[in-house]
Design goal:
Length: 577
């Protein structure tokens, strides 16, 4: 008797997940191993075209997935075991949520025999936690996979939610037994995307908006992180080629337009350029492209909604302000909005004069003046001259972050990536690892402070183990400078925790322990060391020494002040305001 052979294409759930990730363009998965995630890691290691990267802390893996997605513009993936492993991903998940980064997090979970979901117990078993309930407020989609047959729906929906609309994190919790269960992919139920009604071109931009633009004498574009994508890049160049409006940028919008572009004015906000903040205040029509309008950007402007028309373009309606007579929310993609405007005949009769005034303003309040000692400005200006075209820099949180935003010249394709909304120290090193692996052909640097690097020391071993060509630049002022500034202003100079009781490690010894090339910059003469170390293959750590009182331009002098030579009154003296 001849036995029938089952010809159905059987595979395991873990293998199916890996194939879906490869089909989504993912070629690196970051994680930390553990008993409840081993089947998935084993499946990744058995496939060509995708690589598992073992971090040394789950938070590092989560931030690496953030950096990978930011650099590649595609999905970033991090995985971890159950309980504490899953919880250690949470800060990276929150960062992806706040900065709209397309990421997928997969956690292992207890096998079926340990789950006691019907009983009122605090914990199912060892290393168990209800991770889905923890992350629901900071994910676009979070789900426990309860049956092997659910995996197609769950993985397709998770990838879709993370990558579509306003991007963000998705999480799947997959019990251990399901990961190695066999399935027949041909009979699994798919996730079906509901068709969305798209607005017509006429609905997208109203006649009222076009009239507001045509009446404007001092129009200004505000670039936000929602415009930092390839589609917007093409549309922006097309639009500015026809309508050379001036543009300022938020922290997360610094990558949208080359800083050499004739339309680029500068960086706005609490620590922004003074001339850019004055331009923002003086504008009579603000075109906000993919930026939230929070107090760190607009706090210095009193009654700004009374003094200017605002056209606010965003893909997320929750970012819109309450409707008012001069506020026009536009729900949609920035690229679609700009392409639509390119098809409309717009006239800005005062644009030449307005651009000339802004040029004079920029000359009157230069970003940097020459000094004869090492300063954040002198170091960063020299660094960005030395960096190769298309360099990607991942920047941590603190004074060095604001200095980099102020003095980092983004020309020739150079990019800056931040933990912008959440502002998480310890982000930059693991994010730089992810970004490097996403863009192996680009120079990758990590700019951090002494405090931020101390929070991410485990990932130095990832650099050392894999000899990744990432350069770490540490601004070391032996204190937590941003907190210290706040304490000095608000607590009569008491600096407990930021100065008193705080001490960073010896970075030369730390570099030696991890077999990472090291150099120290103390003064202007040492800047000559940059060229060699930046172009030496492999990981390097550059420690730049600054005094305790290191500071960027404090926010109080970046705001428009009474007595400015090129004042708001001068800029708005055309009689219409």
């Amino acid at each position: 008797m001849v036995m029938a052979i089952n010809s159905q294409p059987k595979t395991t759930v873990s293998e199916y997940i890996v194939e879906q990730l490869i089909n989504s363009g993912v070629n690196h998965v970051f994680g930390y191993t553990g008993a409840n995630i081993t089947y998935l890691i084993d499946a990744i290691s058995s496939y060509d075209g995708i690589e598992y990267v073992q971090a040394y802390h789950e938070q590092g893996a989560a931030f690496a997935a953030n950096g990978y997605a930011q650099a590649a513009g595609t999905l970033g993936v991090a995985i971890a075991s159950s309980g504490p492993g899953a919880l250690n991903l949470v800060t990276g998940i929150a960062n992806a949520y706040c900065d709209s980064i397309a990421t997928l997090y997969i956690c292992g979970d207890l096998s079926r025999r340990y789950q006691k979901n019907t009983l009122p117990l605090r914990q199912d078993g060892f290393q168990s936690i209800d991770i889905v309930s923890v992350v629901e407020p900071i994910t676009k989609f979070a789900e426990v996979v309860r049956s092997p047959d659910d995996i197609r729906y769950c993985i397709e929906r998770a990838i879709y939610e993370a990558s579509s609309g306003r991007r963000g994190p998705a999480l799947l919790s997959i019990p251990h037994w399901i990961q190695h269960a066999e399935i027949d992919p041909t009979v699994l139920s798919p996730f079906v995307v509901s068709p969305l009604k798209s607005a017509s071109l006429d609905e997208f931009i109203s006649e009222e908006i076009l009239e507001t633009l045509s009446r404007s004498r001092r129009p200004l574009i505000l670039l936000g992180g929602g415009g930092a994508n390839s589609e917007t890049d093409v549309a922006m160049k097309r639009f500015l080629g026809c309508n050379p409006l001036p543009a300022v940028a938020s922290l997360c919008g610094l990558n949208v337009l080359s800083h050499e572009h004739q339309s680029y004015v500068g960086f706005i906000g609490d620590y922004g350029h003074r001339h850019a903040n004055i331009a923002l205040a003086a504008s009579d029509c603000l075109i906000v492209l993919g930026s939230r309008m929070d107090e760190r950007q607009f706090g210095f402007l009193k009654d700004y909604r009374e003094n200017k028309s605002i056209i606010h373009v965003d893909i997320d309606r929750s970012e819109f302000l309450p409707k008012s007579e001069r506020y026009f929310p536009v729900l949609g993609l920035v690229s679609d909005f700009l392409n639509r405007l390119c098809n409309v005949s717009l006239e800005f009769p005062s644009l030449v004069e307005w651009n000339r005034e802004l040029h004079h303003l920029k000359e009157h309040y230069p970003v940097h003046t020459t000094v004869d000692c090492l300063s954040p400005a002198s170091f960063l200006l020299e660094l960005f001259i030395q960096l190769a075209p298309d360099t990607q820099a991942f920047v941590d949180v603190g004074l060095h972050q604001m200095c980099t935003a102020q003095f980092g010249m983004l020309t020739h394709g150079k990019k800056l990536y931040f933990s912008g909304g959440l502002g998480s120290m310890g982000y930059s090193l693991p994010a730089a690892i992810g970004g490097h692996l996403a863009r192996l052909g680009r120079q990758t640097i990590c700019i951090t402070g002494d405090g931020g690097l101390m929070m991410s020391l485990p990932e130095l071993q990832t650099l050392a183990r894999d000899r990744l060509d990432v350069k770490i630049i540490v601004f070391n002022n032996q204190c937590l400078g941003m907190v210290r500034n706040h304490q000095q202003a608000m607590l009569d100079g008491r600096t407990f925790g930021s100065v008193d009781g705080y001490l960073a490690g010896d970075f030369k010894k730390i570099s030696s322990a991890f077999d990472i090339k090291y150099c120290r910059i103390r003064d202007l003469n040492d800047l000559k060391l940059l060229d060699e170390i930046l172009h030496t293959p492999g990981p390097s750590l550059i420690e730049v020494l600054f005094p305790h009182d290191m500071t960027p331009f404090p926010s109080s002098v970046n705001y428009p002040l009474e007595g400015d030579v090129c004042s708001l009154q001068d800029l708005t003296s055309d009689g219409d305001n």
